[in-house]
Design a protein that fits this description.
Blueprint (H helix, E strand, L loop, with lengths): L1 H22 L5 H11 L1 H15 L6 H14 L3 H14 L3 H10 L1 H4 L5 H13 L3 H6 L13 H5 L4 H5 L2 H9 L1 H10 L4 H11 L1 H15 L7 H14 L3 H13 L4 H14 L8 H12 L6
């Protein structure tokens, strides 16, 4: 009987330890675990063990891990889990303007309407904690970022082939330099072909596309490019957009994320959005990218 009691206490301690790992990011996990355990104890424990094992890995810092999750739950339209993660971000003392930024950036791949419910949840939870004024005080104003950008400085970030291509000047004259320059920084040796093709279909759309996507959104600079691109990897995984996942994995590495951090986003995504399109094909995609990027390695 004594041995049995000791085993029960040991098992309880292990469960509590795993709950503590997950609870940092998902504060509702204890109630969810008890509900699952009433229905099926084996599943409840297996799912908790899996989540704790992956969320407890040290490769991603808490900030990056939470921000990726914010984007994924927004993209996957999972408001209850998004609310939990926003609460987790508040508890961890993260920069809430960055949390909001991840939600807003989801408009790129989810359409502008995808931010409506997540924004409402964000305002409710942040407002309830008396933190909303500090968020709105730092909100970007129209044109704020454009006024401090410098084309000649940004040219230094372009690929040499793009700088030498006369199409760069032509496209900036047509569609404005703010969007085209940002695109050249983030998508080297791709943007000129892409912008030329889109413009051949409709120049008005091309102008709107580069102004909104690259100048108004990617040019906001609320998040550093490394973090924003790790979130974009997560966002595209959440909706099964394989082509863009590949693009953003490569660009994330170019913008300072380590291949191991990108791989960790893939591992975490198995928990947050499921296995399809991730295991093992996206692992293989990332390995191929690392093999072709100079200086990149796991």
């Amino acid at each position: 009987m004594i041995a049995q009691d000791k085993q029960i206490k040991a098992d309880k301690a292990i469960i509590d330890s795993m709950l503590s790992v997950v609870e940092k990011y998902q504060p509702g996990v204890r109630a969810r675990f008890e509900q699952r355990r009433r229905a099926d104890p084996a599943f409840a424990e297996a799912a908790l063990t899996y989540a704790a094992r992956l969320f407890g890995r040290p490769v991603l810092d808490d900030r990056s891990r939470v921000l990726v999750m914010i984007g994924q739950f927004t993209m996957a339209r999972r408001p209850a889990r998004l609310r939990e993660t926003i609460i987790g971000a508040c508890n961890l003392g993260l920069d809430l303007n960055e949390v909001l930024e991840v939600i807003l950036q989801c408009s790129i791949y989810g359409g502008e309407s995808i931010v409506d419910e997540p924004l409402e949840i964000f305002l409710e939870e942040v407002g309830a904690r008396g933190m909303l004024d500090s968020v709105t005080a730092k909100a970007l104003q129209p044109g704020q970022r454009d006024r401090v950008r410098n084309l000649e400085e940004e040219r230094k970030t372009w690929h040499p082939d793009d700088s030498a291509d006369p199409r760069a000047e032509t496209l900036m004259e047509k569609y404005g330099w703010h969007g085209i320059s940002m695109a050249l920084t983030l998508r080297p040796q791709h943007t000129l072909d892409n912008a030329t093709f889109i413009g051949s279909l409709d120049e008005d759309f091309a102008k709107a596309f580069y102004e909104f996507g690259y100048s108004d959104m990617y040019g906001r600079r609320v998040l550093d490019n490394r973090t924003r691109l790790l979130c974009m990897v997560g966002n595209t995984l959440a909706i099964g957009e394989i082509v863009q996942t590949r693009h953003h994995m490569r660009t994330a590495i170019k913008q300072g994320a380590s291949p191991r951090e990108v791989l960790e986003v893939l591992f975490q995504s198995v928990i947050t959005v499921g296995h399809p399109n991730i295991v093992p094909e996206r692992f293989r995609d990332l390995v191929k990218i690392v093999e072709t990027e100079d200086g990149a390695s796991f």
